[in-house]
């Protein structure tokens, strides 16, 4: 199951906050308000230090999502089938 993250953007004079949705393949979701780093930190805290986050074409490369796996070994040559979930930005989704 592909995880889906929805995000909205709230701009203030001092900061831009985006909402990220972290979706797990078991159906759980978590909404993170803040930045991409906060979403990554949450995944690391929940999954553990061996988690592998990111891939060619993820959010940092202009893609529509960032996948994460339990460990690097699971991520090698994987198109997302072994991923534990994904991170998506609602702000990016709303521009599509």
What report would you give on this structure?
This protein has three helices and six strands. The protein is an alpha+beta fold and 96 residues long. It has one domain. Strands 1, 2, 3, 4, 5 and 6 form a six-stranded antiparallel β-sheet that branches. A hairpin with a 4-residue loop joins strand 2 and strand 3. 26% of the residues are buried. The N terminus is likely disordered.
Range of helix content: 10-25%
Order of helices and strands: EEEHEEHEH
Distance between the termini: 21 Å
Distinct helical segment count: 3
Q: Quick check: average pLDDT? A: 84
Point out poorly predicted stretches.
1-15
Gross morphology = globular
In summary, what is this structure?
The protein is an alpha+beta fold. The protein has one domain (9-95). The chain contains three helices and six strands.
